[in-house]
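>> received
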Amino acid sequence: MNPIRLMFVLTSPTRGGVEEVVLALLKRLPCSEFRLALAAPRALLEAFGRNLDGVPVDIEPVAAESWRSRTEVSQLARFIDRVRPDIVNPHLFRSVVVAAPLARWHRVPTVVETYHGREGWRHGPIRGSFVPDRLLSRFVTRVIAVSEAARDFLVRVKGYPADKVVVVPNGRDLSALVPGRDRESARKDLGVDPHTPIVGVVGRLEDQKGHRYLLDAWPAVTRDFPDARLLLVGDGSRREALEAQVKALGIAPSVIFTGFRADVARMLDAIDVLALPSLYEGMPLTAIEAAAMARPVVATAVDGTPEVVEHGVTGFLVPPANPPALSGALLTLLADPDRARRLGETGRQRTLERFDLGRQVEATAAVYRSVATKS
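>> returned
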């Protein structure tokens, strides 16, 4: 049997959760069964760096996220013609809007869309219309939704046919997430005392992630825990604005911006509690990783997050854009380390049972096999 020629299409230049999912698939899908290709922005490929070393994948540096970008669309079309994929798999709407019809017009038999959650940039009665999505769905053979909440939104709100959508929950390489292994060295690198309480937030510095609400909540935390530190791991377009907010709130001595870090597991080992103040999420990888590191999670109850964080069992869920609720939940955990430890241990146990990367890769491969057989 010939290998399935599979092409991933990404358009974001920033390395985040969606991009980590694709990277994991590139590294884990069996090369005996799949012939892999990747179309992605040059900046993202540079961010992947050595993570792609040794991965047998045909790469094209292109960001075709709009039909107005004629040069990039033509470049993607030529890549499709050269690779002749059996399946094109775009991730996120901006990728789908170009890659799905383009693939069909170039006689690709199958398009699989991976849907990571609702798009926060779509607001208002016109921009919020999902008519284009329903039209695009005609080009799509199957949709992989990363959570039950994502599937529900696709079917109930966007109007996708229910029989096209299958849920494959995100997973992580749990073998690399070992609590306690790097805690002392990570704190030393950060210049933080071993006994100092640390709350961490890991994610791109973008509006979606809700950092500004966590910063507004932080003064209430430091009133009770003056030596506490807030660790912001990640980078993005909102960094300058967030740094200005920190200065205006007078909390600069207690806030650490690390920028992008490849050693996220070490950063999670350094913290005591993970905060996830997002306004929307598909299924947050950070919450999975933190739970695997036996850290309790304080997260907003949005989209697929409650499928990872169980309120009062593995952490706390709070309403989005609500600084008092965030600070209250964080204070509860910081004031009761024994409870925080119990929640973290329960979270690790449940994560090991439900969110292993191997399960995600195999379930995704099964989707590819099923549509390749039918095409």
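>> The longest strand covers residues 34-40.
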